[in-house]
Amino acid sequence: MPGKKHILVMRFSSMGDVAMTVPVVKALLTQNPELQITYVSRPQFADFFANIPRLNFFTADLDNNYKSFTGIAKLYRQLKKHGKYDAVADLHNSLRTKILRRLFSLAGIPFAFIDKGRTEKELLTRFPNKVLKPLKRTVERYADVFRELGYGLELDHKLAKQPKPLTADIIAITGNKAQPWVGISPFAKHEGKTYPPEKMEEVINELSRQDIKVFLFAGSSIEKEICESWASTYKNVISVVQLLTMEQELILINNLDVMLSMDSAGMHLASLEGTPVVSVWGATHHFAGFLGYGQSEDNIVADDIECRPCSVYGDRPCFRKDYACMHRIQTKMILDRLNSFTSII
Question: Is 0.90 topped by the overall pTM?
Fold first, then answer.
C-alpha cells in the first residue's frame, strides 16, 4: 500500500454546494484507503462531515476571524501548522481559495481546482439560440479535481440511507411517526427558484387534508414567520424553523418519506440522508448540473417554457417580468409526483 497521503480540501459556500461535496469525499476516502482529508469550511457545515473516517473538519469562521487578505493569510498560517499536506483540492475556485492555493503552491504543495464550465453554462442560459443539453454534474466536477491530483474516483450517483433513530428531543417537537412524513423546504435565495408562496400554501393545504404530517424547513426570520403562519392554519403541519440544530434537522430529514424542495439546499440535505426529493425548478435547470446527488430526474417538476433556464443560480431578473416558469407549474403536478412516496395523497 502506498504511504499515507493528506489532502487539504476547500469549499466555503453555499450550503447546498458544500453538501454536494460530501458524497464525493466519502467515495474518495472509501476508494483510496491510504488517504486522509482535512476539509476547511464554515462552522455551520461541520455536521455534514461528522463521523466520516479519516476526515478532519477544520472550522474557518470567515465572517469574523479570517476577513480580508490579512485574515486569509492568518488562515493559511494556521492550516500550515495543522498538518503537512501532499496536495490542495480547491472545490470552490473563489477569490479566497485562489489566494490560499497560491500560498500553498509557493510552499511547494501542488493543487487542482474545479472547472465550473462557465462558457457552456452561458450557452445553456442564453436566449434566444439556447443550447439546451445536459452538462457535467457538479459532483463530477468536484470528482475531477481529485482525479487531476492522481486519485482514482468513481461515483455511483445512488442515494444511500443509513437510518438514524429519532431522539427524544426531536420527538418532543415532531411526535412519534405514525403516518407518512413529508418535508417541505419551500424557499430559495432568489425569486426565480422559489415556487410562489400562495401556490405552495395550496400544496400544504391539500396535504393537510390527508393523514400526512408535514414538516416545514427554512432559515430566515421572514421565512420562519411564513412557516409558522402555515403551521397555525393547517392541521398536521409543523414548522421546525430555528427549533432544531443542524444535527437534529438531518436526523429528521433522514426519517422523512420524501422531501419537497426547490433547487436549493433542502434538496442537497435530503441527498445527504438518502431521502428522495421531489424538486421544483423555475428559472434554473437540472441540465446545469445541480440536481441532488442520487436524486431521480423523474421526480423533477418543471415547465418547459422556451426561455428557461435563464440563469444558472436563479439570480437574474425575469426578462418577462412574470416568472412564468414557476407560475405555470400547477399544484396538481407537485401532488401527483409526491403520490409515489405516500400511499394516501
Answer: yes
